[in-house]
Amino acid sequence: MTTDQFADHVFGALLGAQQVQALYLGDRLGWYELLAKEGPLSPAELAERSGTAERYAREWLEHQAVSGYVIADIGPEVTRFALPAEYSEVLVNGDSLSYLAPLARLSVATGSQMSELLQAYRSGGGVSWQQLGADAREAQSYANRPMYMGQLTSEFLPQIPDLHALLTSGARIADLGCGEGWSSIALAVGYPNVTVDGYDIDTDSVAAAQRNAAEYGVSDRVTVTVADAQSELDSDSHDAVFAFECVHDLSDPVSFLATMRRIAKPGAPIIVMDERTADSFTPDAGPVEQLLYGFSIGCCLPDSMSGGDSAATGTVMRTSTLDAYARSAGLDGASVLDIEHDIFRFYRLQ
After folding, report:
1. What pTM was estimated for this model as a whole?
2. Distance between CA atoms of 153 and 186, rounded to whole angstroms?
3. CA-to-CA dists, residue 267 to 108, 169, 258, 262, 313, angstroms
4. How far is CA 117 from the centre of its chain?
5. Which end of the chain is more exposed for a tag (fewer CB within 10 A), N or C?
């Protein structure tokens, strides 16, 4: 790459960063939702209906138009802006597998902690999930929700025949590191005969999970409580144990996996879902690996290193790393399951 080509590359990244900031504003202010439901709208109409300032609405709408996010209809007296239905799948529809708007919240959350991240990088300390705040917590929750609610029990788990049969007939499930509870809720909705015990270390996430379970009418079968790997959970108590996209965040993943092993009944399925990474580092690994490293440097690695003596795994947790953790936890390793997903990989711990 020549100097000019690299300069163009960096310039494109700067434009992308600005677009993410604008995406955050449109998401949080409800502007995308209004454009999807009531558009086309003029700046004055968007501002009036959202209770925001017209001058900012005009600047934002024009930026969105020149950036390709909305369509401008320039009339003789007033210009109105529309959000195409195809774009609303990405920016508004929280049930769509194409929904990406929440990730702007994560970007803004990590950016807001940049001074703390600089200090952590210098000292070897960390920046916790709690420090990143509601934007990061909700980003994780809303970004994964469509997959949990739309694919987990209808497409993915049926590919594990013995587990699918167990859950269909009825079982007591543990969901460790459940966050705001969408994985637990999805399991309860998809398998009406199961009961789910969800656990998470973050009190705000647990409170949100309890609200979400009540809203979906499954709080009689989904119980979510605050707990970590050191909590006194009953041994040999669950017919299946899950951990969805959380092991790489943990300061002590070995203790966590040992807890999964301890609370599972003999022979019970133990399933981990985490990021799909290359088998080893390579600079040409592709955009997914680039995305995972981006999450890691701003969020997951600093969070895991905020817990003191840390394994410091990071988002790019390779299969060999999880396998080593599992063996250290007294298990016989981690086997990759034949379930295809662009971002996530499913493992069965033996």
Report:
1. 0.93
2. 7
3. 43, 17, 15, 11, 28
4. 20
5. N
